[in-house]
Amino acid sequence: MNTSVKTTRPYALAVSGALCAAVLVVPEECLTAYPVAMTAPDLGDVELVPADWPGTPGGATLCQTTSTADGSIETVDYAATMPAAEVLDHYEAALPGAGVVRADEGMGEQLSGSTGGVAFEITTRDGAYSVVFAAAR
Predict the structure, then answer these.
(1) What gap in Å lies between CA 35 and CA 33, rounded to an integer?
(2) Among candidate residues 29, 28, 77, 27, the one with its CA nearest the CA of residue 56
(3) 3-state class (DSSP) for residue 92
(4) CB atoms within 10 A of CB 7
(5) Mean pLDDT of 108-122
(6) DSSP-assigned states of every residue in 34-62
(7) Distance CA 24, CA 11 (A)
(8) 51 close to 42: Cβ distance less than 8 angstroms
(9) Comparing C-alpha atoms, which of 39, 34, 32 is closest to residue 13?
(10) DSSP category for residue 81
(11) Which candidate in 42, 60, 100, 127 could, as Cys together with 56 as Cys, close a disulfide (CB 3.0–4.6 Å)?
């Protein structure tokens, strides 16, 4: 059995052999911000996104989604071309009824709040941001 691995470009992995053939696809905009992302992300896989959750700011690209084993916490990661403050401004303005708090908790400004029975936290870093969702208690 041939189990050789051939890398044709970053994050396009072709495995040859009788048992397995796969191509892992990650948006090109994500390769710097999330270098270990491995599959094409799908926001539909995230069950905790509130029905009234706003769209992303312009220049944001969905890179990956993750969750805890029990699904109680889900994270959505984006690459972003705009400054962190603009990302937070966008969500703060788009979530007026969510009790949004903007604060610096020691790692830069972030937003937190709750909407649609789901708590959220938005953190940023250069070229990327993450949204963490958890069922509100």
Answers:
(1) 6
(2) 77
(3) helix
(4) 9
(5) 95
(6) -TT--S---GGG-TT--TTPPPPPTTEEE
(7) 6
(8) no
(9) 39
(10) S
(11) 60
pLDDT digits (tens, 9 = 90+) for 10-50: 434 344 433 333 345 889 999 999 999 988 899 999 999 99
Alpha helices in the chain (DSSP H): 84-94
Whole-prediction pTM value?
A: 0.81
3-class DSSP state of 80 = strand
Q: Mean pLDDT of all residues in the chain?
A: 84
Closest CA to 43 of 84, 90, 12, 76: 76
Round to the nearest angstrom and report the end-to-end CA distance of the chain: 52
pLDDT tens per residue across span 64-86: 999 999 999 999 999 999 999 99
Q: How far apart are CA 72 and CA 70, in angstroms?
A: 6
Separation between Cα atoms, residue 21 and residue 95, nearest integer Å: 43
Distances (CA, A) of 61 to 3, 28, 69, 90, 92: 33, 9, 25, 15, 19
